[in-house]
Amino acid sequence: MKDILSLGLDEMRGLLLSKEEAAFRADQIFNWVYKKRTLDFSEMTNLPKALRGELPGLLYFPAMRAVEKQFSKDGTEKYLWKLKDGNQIESVVLRHPGHVTFCISSQVGCALNCSFCATGAGGFSRNLSTGEIVSQVIHMERAIHGPVDNIVFMGMGEPFLNENSVYKAINILHDPRGRNLGFRHFTISTAGIPEGIKRLADSEIDIRLSVSLHSAKDELRSSLMPVNRIHSLDSLREALVYYQQKTGNRITFEYALISGVNDTAGDVEQLIKYLRGIKSFINIIPVNPVNPNFERPTDQKVVDFEERLKAVGFESAVRHEKGTDIDAACGQLRQRRRGKGLERRKGVVVRFGSRNMEVVDNETGGRLLCTMPGRFRMQGIRPIVGDRVEYSLSGNGQGRIESILTRETELLRPRISNIEQILLVLSLREPAVQNVITDRFLVLAEYAKLPVVVVINKIDLLADDEIKEFSEIYGEYYNIHQVSSKKEININQLRDILKGKISVMAGMSGVGKSSLLNTLNPGLKLRVSEISRGLERGRHTTSYVELLQFDFGGLIADTPGFANLELPEIEPDSLKRYFPEIDQESGMCAFSDCVHIDEPGCYVKELIKAGNIHESRYESYLSMYNELKEREREKGGKKYG
Q1: Long-range Cβ contact pairs of 79-83 (< 8 A, separation 24 or more)
Q2: Would the pLDDT of 123 be above 90?
Q3: What is the DSSP string of 534-580?
Q4: Which of 244, 374, 437, 609 is buried deepest, with most CB atoms within 10 A?
Q5: d(Cα 209, Cα 187) in Å, to the nearest integer?
């Protein structure tokens, strides 16, 4: 199998052609991955079902999950990713007015061991693959729900020591047929590898170059940056002059200002002398002291340093500091996690109080109260029910939340994370739930990108033809499970569906949700009453959601919140995506933007006339489409997004 994120479009075409698939299928996959940021072949709905089933045997997405994330008050986000082999790397989201920058890693650790850098203190493990580099970008775009504007290779590692993977990643992300990020939106930050700089100058990749300089004195720079002992300032300058002659591009120089080390008048004069004749921009960075021997200079020292550079005509600026309230420095978060001796356990938040929360431990299934660290409140971080967390045990039998793991999914109504499936409970009698209500539930579930198990309750009241009619409408696209909580029919099979997962139960009033829960796990709600007294609930709490714990393993939310059937902010023309039988056939219509209302050559409407798509489903689609259109008109034609 091949790493899909390490393949360019032409390579992907070649692979599919070798498997006797049409080359344009590669273009469709490329579009899903790089324009829609989809990392699941099953969601690539314009591909044939058979191909979607075969792709996991040909291609894989590199394993990468966030084991910790931090959020700064200024909008900076720091991610610590765990790779398939257990290694960890860091990436940062930097928000600026009008644009977003990703700072990404090129290696696991770094061999250059710069004295002010936390990454070097952890040593070097290996180079990242092209796919692992690209994966950082896609995962962070998914996290921020939007595109990045600039990518800087200024995370862990020296990019020129992993040149092939870095350049291929840039070319993949640059490809106009996919992500289409211009070359000038990429920056390589190097500690000063002369041959790498020269190769960049000779390449066709016209990206930006940034050099970590930090001193223009050989002896001092060698003590700060051991790479200078191999590649002196003279050899570095020769490469920089060559680069500028070949490209004409301005070079950014990073200068970490350290009190009493490189911030004197003599240091700035030496820097001026070294850079004379090189078109430069000098980025002055008051040091983030990860090394206890280094101190940040005074504000006046920083001002004096910058003013002297500007006085002789150099462009310079003091970097606007971001992420000062989190572990934002390169390698800092990874180092802190390695160095912390506290045993961390993992669990799921199942309930909230005003000052603490209830967590179920992953291994033992035990429940305990946990507090939040003060830094969470300072940073405006608030866990929600369903969050997977790491916690440490305190001496009083309670715990302390240390980190919130990445949310795989998140519902807004009810506010709950990491849901793995929705249990849609219906009854066809007493009461008879109308198909239009069922369809709205299903659209909400499709919009949330969550699998649905349709549970028909009270089957002891139904005739076979009633169940058959329902299955003919929904059975091809949804998993239907028939039960009777009263007669305990098929209850064990439903337990198997729920076991080990976090689920949400949804459905209209009267369909038997509560009785079904009590049949699945008698006394389910009674068991949590004792520990509930330990939760210090705020007096003004009006509503909340909680996860109930099954004895057989698994958690479920039973809440009226999901019964709010108001459609989310879907663009009317996008509604078809949430009806799988319509979405699957949309590509056969005469026009690619067909919305299946009154367009000529509509293949979907032909299928409806032939009975291959049930008319009641189309009527629901039409009703919701008109509802969304009316909402759009009321908003003055403003589109959602």
Answers
A1: 79/139, 79/140, 79/143, 79/406, 80/333, 80/334, 80/337, 81/136, 81/139, 83/108, 83/132
A2: no
A3: TS---TT------EEE-TTS-EEEE-GGGG-----S--GGGGGGGSH
A4: 244
A5: 6
Whether 332 and 362 have beta carbons less than 8 Å apart is answered as no
The pLDDT tens digits for 195-230 are 999 999 999 999 999 999 999 999 999 988 989 999
Residue 148: band (very low, low, confident or very high) from pLDDT cuts 50, 70, 90: very high
**Burial tier of 272 (Cβ tally within 10 Å: 0-12, 13-18, 19+):** middle
The third-level CATH classification (topology) of the domain covering 342-406 is OB fold (Dihydrolipoamide Acetyltransferase, E2P) (2.40.50)
Nearest to 192 by CA among 143, 265, 251: 251
Which two three-digit tokens encode residue 86? 């257990």
Domain 572-634 has CATH 3.30.930.10: no
Give rounded-to-5 percent helix, strand, coil for the chain. 40, 20, 40
Q: Where are the domains of the chain?
A: 2-60, 64-333, 342-406, 418-563, 572-634
Say which residues have a Cβ less than 8 Å from residue 232's Cβ, sequence separation at least 6.
218
pLDDT, residue 410, reads 85
d(CA 131, CA 62): 6
C-alpha–C-alpha distance, residues 351 and 98, integer Å: 38
CA-derived radius of gyration, the chain: 29
Give the fold, CATH level 3, of 2-60. DNA polymerase; domain 1 (1.10.150)
14-50: pLDDT as tens digits:
999 999 999 999 999 999 999 999 999 999 999 999 9
Percent of the chain predicted with pLDDT > 70: 88
Start-end of H helices in 63-186: 118-121, 130-144, 163-174
Cα–Cα dist 354/38, whole Å = 37
485/519 Cα distance (integer angstroms) = 6
CATH number of 64-333: 3.20.20.70
Cβ atoms of residues 21 and 13 within 8 Å: no
Please name the residue that has the structure tokens 């994120």: 5
What per-residue confidence (pLDDT) applies to 641?
44
Query: Given pLDDT bands bounded at 50, 70 and 90, which one contains residue 638?
Result: low
What pLDDT was estimated at residue 634? 86
- CA–CA dist 397, 547 (Å, integer): 22
Q: pTM to 2 decimals? A: 0.55
Q: Tens digits of per-residue pLDDT, 227-246?
A: 999 999 999 999 999 999 99
CA atoms of 354 and 626, how far apart (whole Å): 42
Q: Which residues pair with 538 in a beta bridge?
A: none
Asked whether residue 338 carries a pLDDT value surpassing 70, the answer given is no
What CATH class does 418-563 carry? alpha beta
Catalytic annotation, residues = 90, 330
Number of H helices, E strands in the chain: 21, 27
Residue with tokens 């995370």: 155
Distance between CA atoms of residues 435 and 627, nearest Å: 17
With tokens 């950014």, the residue in question is 252
Residues 254-269: what's their mean pLDDT? Answer: 94
What's the chain's average pLDDT? 87
Is the separation of the CB atoms in 287 and 330 below 8 Å?
Answer: no
SS3 state at 74 = coil
Confidence of residue 295 (pLDDT cuts 50, 70, 90): confident
Question: Per-residue pLDDT for 525 more than 70?
Answer: no
